[in-house]
Amino acid sequence: MIEIKAVRKSFGAIEVIRGINLTIERGEVLCLIGASGSGKSTLLQCINSLEPIQGGQIVVDGIDVHGKSTDLNKLRQKLGIVFQQYNAFPHLTALENVALAPRVVKKMPRAQALELAREHLDYVGLGARADLRPAKLSGGQQQRLAIARALAMKPDYMLFDEVTSALDPELVGEVLDTMRNLKATGMTMIVVTHDIAFARESGDRVAFFDRGTLCEVGPAKQVINEPREERTRQFLQRVL
Ligand code: ADP
Ligand code: MG
Question: Which of 9, 15, 16 to mutate to test the pocket of ligand 1 (most atoms within 8 A of CB)?
Fold first, then answer.
């Protein structure tokens, strides 16, 4: 489980996360929604210890994320992250991209890593594209490749940061399908998304972020269909 306790985060004098409390249970899909600039990406970066925090605590399966003696490799192996922008290595094939981290980080023998990579490419529907470089893949395929790369490290949690926002509309569905399949396997997921329909249908809970605070958290359908907070209602009116 991921526990976010009274977390504060500033960039210089500007506080962008202002005391957030949130617990993500194993097997849960939590969707984070909120206006651009409200702090959603920053929170994901804090969970992964890519950013320090100025107050509070984040605990992942008992590991104090920002603790002085925390093993960051161990922490990050628990957390798979997929971003909006594609980040595959351009000179490697899709297969080599997926095999890379298991080989380098987990010191897996090459043949075993390639076999694992093939399984994960099959899982995201890219088995037939294994030998292509990322530039030869569509945006939707590149995002599925990014998901396969993250999954190959056998994470306990998957964090998604607007992974469909840069895609042409016709490519969004294949990526969301992959995420729905992952949910069906019981993967714990935190999904930052502008896709309100996805949040309503695939989220267990939805958390609405407003200027660095958590304005409303609850069952997905309740938050989207019958928000309790006026600010949630106004946000949903703007984006729906
Ligand atoms: P969201 O993902 O909800 O759009 P972000 O977490 O990216 O929001 O940003 C929250 C706020 O923090 C914004 O005002 C943004 O400009 C600021 N911010 C994000 N990253 C940095 C950074 N590295 N340095 C300074 N300010 C940043
Ligand atoms: Mg963001």
Answer: 16
C-alpha dist (Å) from residue 118 to 87, 97, 102, 163, 228: 19, 11, 13, 22, 46
Q: Across the chain, which distance is largest between two alpha carbons, in Å?
A: 56
Residue 193's pLDDT is what? 97
User: What residue owns the CA closest to ligand 1's atom 22?
Assistant: 11
- List the one residue out of 18, 1, 3, 13 whose CA is nearest residue 55: 18
Give distance in angstroms: CA of 32 to centre of ligand 1.
15
Q: What is the pTM of this model?
A: 0.96
Determine which helix (DSSP H) or strand (DSSP E) holds 59, and give its type and residue range.
strand 55-60
Choose which residue among 20, 42, 85, 209 to substitute to test ligand 1 binding: the one with the highest number of ligand atoms within 8 A of its C-beta. 42
Q: At CA 217, angle to CA 169 and CA 199, rounded to 5?
A: 20
Closest ligand 1 atom to Cα of 12: 25
Per-residue pLDDT tens digits for 67-84: 999 999 999 999 999 999
Q: How large is the ipTM?
A: 0.98
Name the band, by pLDDT with cuts 50, 70 and 90, for residue 240.
confident
Q: Is the pLDDT of residue 86 over 90?
A: no
What is the DSSP-derived secondary structure letter of residue 134? G
Polymer length of the chain: 240
